[in-house]
Amino acid sequence: MPLGIPSSAVARGPRVHLRPPRASDERGLLRVARRSRVLHRPWVSTPTTPSAYATWLEGAAAPNRVRLLLCRNDGGEIAGYFALNEIVRGALQSAYLGYWANAACAGQGLMGEGLRILVRHAFRALRLHRLEANIQPDNAASIGLVRSCGFAREGFSPRYLKVAGRWADHDRWALTIEAWRARPPC
Ligand SMILES: CC(C)(COP(=O)(O)OP(=O)(O)OC[C@H]1O[C@@H](n2cnc3c(N)ncnc32)[C@H](O)[C@@H]1OP(=O)(O)O)[C@@H](O)C(=O)NCCC(=O)NCCS
What we know:
The protein has six helices and eight strands; from the N terminus they run ββαααβββαβαββα. The protein has helices at residues 26-35, 37-40, 50-59, 110-125, 140-148, 177-182, and strands at residues 11-12, 16-19, 66-72, 78-88, 94-101, 130-135, 152-163, 166-176. Strands 1-2-3-4-5-6-8-7 form an eight-stranded mixed sheet, with helices on both faces. The longest helix is centred in the middle third of the chain and has 16 residues, at 110-125. The mean pLDDT is 95. It binds coenzyme A. Coenzyme A binds at residues 39-40, 43-44, 99-101, 106-112, 135, 139-142, 144-145, 148.
């Protein structure tokens, strides 16, 4: 294992790796959430108190969910977060994608690298067939991120999800293992 990457890492890239969150991440994650409030606020909610973190960590252990921190290989700083939610097995083999960046690390291509290694992990190790991301049409950064990894826009869902207390329209973006395999390696 290269220096700086913990043995708990489930996926590795040149600059970042993905690993499960742990109780000792509380301070670091709350600090990132606090400092990233402006970036996150209109789109996602992140734990901002120790008790919210405890609930969030407990939720990370659910059998139909995978929560992973994206950390720099060099130093271990939390650069972002990815979730595979509502994993359904059987004939679907699908999951819903969630994510956010640490504002201090945003715009450096780390989330793009993180999404690429997450997708590889989801299709290879977790044997999923389809990943779906529902994104508000004016969230340009989020659309740019999934587009950069080969997700295609499948449709529009009016009043799809309650975000910050209001039902918000979303576009449905998805990637299947077949589309992923057909892409040139990146
Ligand atoms: C969405 C988010 C994770 C992107 O993080 P980031 O650090 O900017 O991502 P990266 O720097 O790794 O860029 C990844 C890709 O997205 C593209 N991108 C980033 N911001 C963009 C923007 N505003 N417009 C268009 N494309 C953009 C980049 O160009 C890159 O594509 P490329 O590899 O083809 O150049 C970040 O903006 C964020 O945390 N937003 C708030 C939370 C959120 O919206 N979560 C998703 C809810 S659906």
